[in-house]
Amino acid sequence: MFMKNEQTKTKQKINDLYELKKLRLMEEQNEHLSFSQKRRIQKLEDQYPGYKAKRSREIDEQMLHDFPPNYSQHPLNWKPQKVVSQTEQAINDLHELCQLKRDAELHKPMEHLERARNKTRIENLENLYPKYKGKSSREIDEQLLHDFPPNYGRHPIKVISNREQKINDVNELRQLYAELYYPVVHRSLQEAKMNRMRELEFQYPTYKGKTPEQMDLQLLNEFPPDYRKAPPVPTNTQQVIRDLYELRRLKELLYGENGVIVVGKQYENMKARIAQLERMYPQCAHMNSNQLNNILIKLNSNNSYSSVPQETQATVHSEHIRQTRNDYIHQYKKTPQPIRGTTTGFHFDFPNNDERIRFLGEQAGKGREFIATDDNNKVMAYAKDGILYHGNHEEFKKGDKLQSWNISKEEFREEMENQQTGPKCR
Questions:
Q1: Per-residue three-class SS string for 156-187
Q2: Shortest CA distance to 96 belongs to which of 65, 160, 53, 62?
Q3: What is the pTM of this model?
């Protein structure tokens, strides 16, 4: 009877540990675990402390060691995972330690139980590999490259000593900052971009908090022979033009007749940026967008308009605006801004001028009639019968550029209604 009870307990323990192993495997494969499953992991680890904070493969190996006659025929018929070589195992373990350290350094959001498990796992791995104890993720990464040169080729973290990689990374950080410092258009940075920016700031702390121009100058100073593809640092006149262009754009968006609806934090950010630019250029503080446009024309009399950011926006008015809006969100992963006072107009922002033309042409090809206008409500293009036309009624051809025509949307619609050929929108 006693022997039978012992066999039952052994069987129960094998099943419990198999369940723990299965849950751990789900966790390692980034599968979503419910709250009850996470509680079950904690309960099983408390019940069997010898298996605490171990990965599925380690649980498997430990079970083979603890139950040699039983574990090969337990009721769930589990096949143990293949045991890798010691070198591969060490690389995998240290790779995991590197990732856990990196998550901790970046303060990655996680639940309390997961944080505690990660801390225990770090301690176990550091005890297993004392040479790597107390090192940061970057130091672990560099040590791995030194200890396993032929094997550790696909390391997850970029090494700072790689000059080309650093230039590419800082250029990426520079671009992310540019989207914050030059909000010529509305941009809601996606969470992935924000995380990437924090990651790069952590990796290159000397570039943290700098403007794109400051990063550009520092890169040129730090890598004079290598930094060939750096965008030119703007001259003072060009910078003034950029700043005033941005100020004009922001005022038009917030206060113009065809301005967009902006609320919450985005509105506060735009207001703060306007105030900052007005402090930089007090003579322009009380100017409206039209007055600022006149100043820009004067400034550009001796400078090429190429120094001003390309027009990459379009306001689209259409009875099919919801379908157009959905296509835009699907393609660019951001939401266009609705136009005040109408339900058939949205303001769209594009990465570049070619994308703007491509998107409008695609919408026309889907048979959606619309009128596209610029910031001043001047017609740039319209779509009719699946064809994209210029504002002067000429069919849009490959290589053509979008330009504003001296006719407002209202005048254009009235003209087209008289001809009974225009796109339907309000």
A1: CCCCCCCHHHHHHHHHHHHHHHHHHHCCCCCC
A2: 53
A3: 0.33
What CA–CA distance (Å, rounded) separates 404 from 378? 6
Rounded Cα–Cα distance for residues 320 and 333 (Å): 19
pLDDT of residue 76: 43
Identify the DSSP state of 109. Answer: -
Q: Which residues contact 329 (CB under 8 A, 6 or more apart)?
A: 335, 336
Dihedral angle sign, alpha carbons of residues 103, 106, 111, 116? positive
Confidence (pLDDT) at 303? 47
Q: Tens of pLDDT along 261-276?
A: 666 777 777 788 888 8
- d(C-alpha 84, C-alpha 304), whole Å: 63
DSSP line for 197-210? HHHHHHH-GGGTT-
CA 201 – CA 180 distance, rounded (Å): 15
Q: What is the CA radius of gyration of the chain?
A: 30
On the question of pLDDT at 315 being above 80, the answer is yes
Longest dimension (CA), the chain: 102
Buried b (16+ CB within 10 A) or exposed e, 211-241: ebbebbebbeeebeeebeebeeebeeebebb
> Which residue's entry shows tokens 């600022």?
292
